[in-house]
Structure formats: C-alpha cells, structure tokens
Amino acid sequence: MADRSTDSRTSSDETTEAPDVAALREENASLQDRLLRALADAENVRRRGDRAAQDARNFAVADLSRELLTVVDNLRRAIAAADDPNVDSTGSGPLLEGIKAIERSLMTTLERFGVRRIEARGTPFDPLLHEGIMEVDDPERAPGAVVDVMEDGYTIHDRLLRPAKVSVRPSRPAAAAEELASPDDRRDSSADPSE
Predict the structure, then answer these.
(1) Architecture field, domain 116-186
(2) CA 108, 110, 116: angle at the middle one, nearest 5?
(3) Which of 21, 79, 129, 170 is the most buried (most CB within 10 A)?
(4) Tens-of-pLDDT digits for all 195 residues of the chain?
(5) How far is CA 49 from the centre of its chain?
(6) Structural domain boundaries of the chain?
(7) Helix, strand, or coil here: 154?
(8) What is the dihedral of CA 188, 177, 140, 134, to 10 degrees?
(9) Angle separating helix axes 93-112 and 62-83, nearest 10 degrees
(10) Are strands 164-168 and 130-135 parallel, antiparallel or unpaired?
C-alpha cells in the first residue's frame, strides 16, 4: 500500500510539472517577444537620435546663414554702386560709408551668434589668443605687449575661433636674448656657412 501512495504522488507531481513546463514555455515566448520589441524600440530611438544629430550638424548654421544673407545683399549693392559708370569715382565717400555700414551690420550679426573680436592691440601677448608673427621694437609699448594686429582674432562663446595674428614687442632686448643663448647656439650662428 505504501507503494500505491508513492505512485499516486509521483503521477500527481508529473501532472503539475507538465502544466508548469507549458506555462514556462509560454512565459519564455512572451519574454522573448518583449525582449525583441524592446531591442527594436532601442534601435528606433538610436536611429532617431542619429538623424536628429545629423540634422543639427547640417542645419546648425542655418540661422547664421540666414542673417548673413542680408550682409551679402548689401555687399552686392556696394559693388554695383562702385561699378556704376554714372557714379562719380571721386565721390567715394558715400561708397566708403556704405561699406563701413555693411561691416557694422556683419559684426552685429556675428555678435548675436556669440562671435566676438579679440581686442589685442596694446594688451600683453597671450599665446592662447594671439599668434605672434614678428617682433617689433616699439619703445611706446611695454615689453611683451602686442604692437600691431595683422589679422583680427575671434572667439565664439568664449572659445577661440581664430587667433589674432600680431606683432609683439620683445620681452627682452636682442642683446640680452643673445647672452641667454646657449654656447652651442652661439657657435652654430657664428659658424661659417661655406664650411
């Protein structure tokens, strides 16, 4: 009799296991479906993000470009006025004033977008903002100061866009700089180039 009770327990366990296996397979299929949907959603989000980033790169300058078109129009008008044979070439004052107005308009437009000109003349040389082109001995300027600006530099939102190309008064006189040169440098400079 003990054997019958064990057999009945075993058969009842098998019947409860059989529905559990079916339920587990159904749950597994449901989870796989949910996983595939989640992966597809993640891929769609990634694609949308890539597309938005590409659009941002492509059209980031659209506002600036739109604003600069008015400057282009004004420059074309100035060129047309300069080429007009009916305009007296000796009266270039109004033309020059028109071109200066265009420059002011352009700078105003650039400033609206965060582009600022670097004020370099007379300031101490800063290698982060200035590109030294040459040294100029100017007794009116302090040593290491910017003497002249060959090409204006610009920043955009406090980040360097283009350094100012400048001439700089040397920090020390040429004779003092030569004294500081190493003996090898002096020997190389005094060597006969024909040797």
Answers:
(1) Roll (2.30)
(2) 95
(3) 129
(4) 455 555 555 555 555 556 688 889 999 999 999 999 999 999 999 999 999 998 887 777 777 777 777 787 888 887 777 777 776 656 677 777 888 888 888 888 888 888 889 999 999 999 999 999 999 998 899 999 999 999 989 998 888 989 999 999 998 765 444 544 444 554 454 444 444
(5) 20
(6) 12-60, 62-83+101-113, 116-186
(7) strand
(8) 40
(9) 180
(10) parallel
Among residues 184, 166, 186, the alpha carbon closest in space to that of 175 is found at 186
- The answer to whether 73 and 23 are in contact (CB under 8 A) is no
Cross-strand pairs, 145: 124
For residue 38, give both structure tokens.
């989640």
Place of tokens 């300031």: 123
Token code pair at residue 50: 């890539």
Cα 37 to Cα 43: distance, rounded to the nearest angstrom:
10
- Cα pseudo-dihedral 133, 138, 141, 144, rounded to 10: 40
- Give the Cα separation of 64 and 73 in Å (integer): 15
Place of tokens 């044979």: 85
Q: Any alpha helices (H) in 84-173, and if so which ranges?
A: 93-112
Contact 146, 135 (CB under 8 A): no
